Inverse folding.
């Protein structure tokens, strides 16, 4: 993985010093809150419902054991002993004191981490496929491009005051695991007729109050043109994007109001204008970065013990079947660690669990970890002969829940338990759904299902692209939950359809249960997933299950 | 006189981020029950204006609707209810240590 160059180290250290000084000046009264707020947001520091929250970037979701250990230490030293992994491959600490933030950032800098540009109207943490560098279906590792974009966008003088925040995601696989179509810029690696890798560029995707699927503005962008092209997109957006209304300031609205054809024309014109300024230095930097992402030194080992334990141990077999994915290297596997134990807070890990994860990465995973936008942790490179020992260790730490991609593997934003913007809680809804389906012992029978919960219209929980989405709202001073159906976060991205009136807090879990029972009765065979079944039948039978005639009066 | 919903002045502590309330003596308390329940719109405006001068102690002061209860002010809205306790997934925040 990439390690900081002297420039990166100096830059991050300088920023820690600058922000620490700004904190001191806020505390001594030299800065007003109005002056301080944009400065703290630029450094990932929010003020939430009960406390400050520090959002730490995990660029393209990649970290190593040492970094994970440091996150554990920070959680114990300055917080309440845990951290929350988010849908943007960040980690959030929910309880830091303002007076400790400088020390936390300094501790992060010690392990090549930071909180820069995790908030504010700038280019945010660049996200990537969490299976990058390991996936069987991958054309090439997308992380060198993500790192190049991180370096280019960090403190970029032209793009520090964009009309609104700007999110970029990149995937190197045709199967999109990075939700690229729901990003301001989505980069999906493709090959041209000669087999040369390049990028399909989508612009204007986003969730929030006006959900939109990104539109392709370039079918094939050669890699060497990527940086000037992204700069052209940002440059056009920076001029055109609306600053009069924050709800209309994202590039998806710019695209909608300008028209895809005209916006594409403007991007291309700007690209032609600035392309000559890129003399090739970016490609030299990219080449150096790419070397840092060389594959690990794969080993070979006998698989007979693995095969025997797989046959003999049902719990292990279930975990392998559910949480382990195909690796590009023969004999290797990608192991996903679920942070969705039934009844636990989605995405939370205790300091003790983080240390176990760090140790597992070092012992069995070539010292590499990934955080997924689905709020789980991935060991991308595990030899199959090590899977059993890995599973044993994870089990002992409460980290071996075999539910990846199932109904209890729920994305949930922090919601009103923490977030100042939220209109309803998300976490307890996720906990209750997971507990209910665990009690029913149905989730493996239900099969692949993406359930995603947001506690407000900003949609951090990606509810629009969940097969089942839940949106928590405040209806006349009461929590109310709307259901959307048929969303899709993959390369066939789609926004879900609203099913009908919302449900109260007490009614939402039974409503989801009726929906799932209807699906089980409606599917033509076990292999027909909820999404496929919904696409085949349309909304009607599912709405009937959600709103049976005798319940009409209960739905508000 | 038109109906006025009683209010308290609340915000977050500058150093800790914790929810705090303005008391009758113009000090700040972590405990809603010690907050001054304001029943007059002019007084509410004056108290908020005072809170806005307290930027060395408080962030984001605002008036929150409350109702009078025997033990003290009681939140009207569930958001304010959560602010008096803390999150529902862990016993953290104000509820920490309480049983």
């Amino acid at each position: 993985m990439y390690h900081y160059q002297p420039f990166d180290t100096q830059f991050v250290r300088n920023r820690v010093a600058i922000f620490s000084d700004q904190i001191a000046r806020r505390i001594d009264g030299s800065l007003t809150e109005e002056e301080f707020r944009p400065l703290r947001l630029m450094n990932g520091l929010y003020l939430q419902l009960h406390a400050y929250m520090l959002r730490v970037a995990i660029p393209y979701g990649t970290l190593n054991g040492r970094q994970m250990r440091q996150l554990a230490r920070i959680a114990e030293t300055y917080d309440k002993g845990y951290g929350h992994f988010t849908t943007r491959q960040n980690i959030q600490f929910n309880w830091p004191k303002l007076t400790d933030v400088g020390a936390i950032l300094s501790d992060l800098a010690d392990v090549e981490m930071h909180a820069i540009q995790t908030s504010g109207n700038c280019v945010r943490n660049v996200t990537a496929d969490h299976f990058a560098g390991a996936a069987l279906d991958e054309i090439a590792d997308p992380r060198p491009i993500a790192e190049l974009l991180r370096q280019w966008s960090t403190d970029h003088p032209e793009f520090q005051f964009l009309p609104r925040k700007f999110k970029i995601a990149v995937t190197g696989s045709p199967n999109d695991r990075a939700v690229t179509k729901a990003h301001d810029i989505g980069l999906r690696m493709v090959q041209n007729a000669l087999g040369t890798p390049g990028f399909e560029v989508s612009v204007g995707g986003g969730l929030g109050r006006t959900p939109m699927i990104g539109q392709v503005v370039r079918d094939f962008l050669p890699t060497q043109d990527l940086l000037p092209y992204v700069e052209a997109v940002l440059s056009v957006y920076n001029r055109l994007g609306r600053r009069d209304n924050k709800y209309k300031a994202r590039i998806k609205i710019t695209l909608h109001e300008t028209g895809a054809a005209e916006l594409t024309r403007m991007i291309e014109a700007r690209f032609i204008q600035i392309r000559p300024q890129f003399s090739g230095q970016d490609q030299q930097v990219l080449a150096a970065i790419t070397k840092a992402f060389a594959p690990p030194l794969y080993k070979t080992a006998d698989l007979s013990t693995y095969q025997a334990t797989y046959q003999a141990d049902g719990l292990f077999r279930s975990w392998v079947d559910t949480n382990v994915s195909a690796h590009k290297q023969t004999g290797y596997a990608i192991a996903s660690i679920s942070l969705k134990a039934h009844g636990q807070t989605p995405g939370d890990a205790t300091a003790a669990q983080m240390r176990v994860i760090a140790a597992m990465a070092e012992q069995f995973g070539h010292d590499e970890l990934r955080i997924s936008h689905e709020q789980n942790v991935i060991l991308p490179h595990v030899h199959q002969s090590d899977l059993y020992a890995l599973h044993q260790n994870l089990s002992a730490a409460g980290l071996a829940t075999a539910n990846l991609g199932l109904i209890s593997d729920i994305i949930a934003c922090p919601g009103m338990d923490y977030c100042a913007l939220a209109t309803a809680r998300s976490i307890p809804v996720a906990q209750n759904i997971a507990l209910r389906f665990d009690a029913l012992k149905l989730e493996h029978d239900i099969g692949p299902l993406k359930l995603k919960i947001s506690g407000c219209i900003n949609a951090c929980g990606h509810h629009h692209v969940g097969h089942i989405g839940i949106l928590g709202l405040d209806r006349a001073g009461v929590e109310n939950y709307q259901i959307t159906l048929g969303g899709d976060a993959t390369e066939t991205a789609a926004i879900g359809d609203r099913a009908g009136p919302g449900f109260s807090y007490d009614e939402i879990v039974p409503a989801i249960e009726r929906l799932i029972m209807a699906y089980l009765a409606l599917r033509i065979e076990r292999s027909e997933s909820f999404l496929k079944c919904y696409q085949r039948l349309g909304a009607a039978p599912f709405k009937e299950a959600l709103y049976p005639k005798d319940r009409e009066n209960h739905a508000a | 006189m038109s109906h006025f919903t009683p209010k308290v002045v609340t915000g977050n502590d500058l150093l800790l981020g914790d929810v705090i309330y303005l008391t009758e003596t113009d000090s700040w308390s972590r405990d809603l029950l010690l907050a001054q329940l304001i029943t007059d719109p002019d007084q509410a405006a004056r108290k908020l204006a005072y809170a806005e001068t307290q930027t060395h102690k408080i962030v984001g002061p605002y008036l929150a609707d409350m109702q009078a209860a025997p033990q003290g002010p009681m939140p009207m809205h569930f958001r304010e209810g959560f602010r008096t306790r803390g999150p529902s997934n862990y016993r953290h925040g104000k509820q920490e240590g309480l049983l």
